[in-house]
# Entry
Amino acid sequence: MDPSSLSSSSSASQPNLDFSKLTDAEKRDLHQQVSNEMQKAKIQDSIHSLTDICWSKCITGAPTSGSLSAKEESCVQNCVERFLDANTAVLKHLEAIRG
# Structure
């Protein structure tokens, strides 16, 4: 993401930021910060998706005791482990393709 593109999206509550006044080091730092935030958002999205998938698959009724049954707990654990295994396999495959 190009930090200079952020200046055109300011709202009335925020001052218009002039990114052209930033030094190259400040631009790199800002770019890194934006990149880090985007990575955090992707991780959070993955966690939410995983939660939805495993909840739908494993939780059969409304938890009444404030905890999961042994069967539900085992199912959720297996669901998460398979999700992580699948992600690891995909990442290894992509790394192999890249060389």
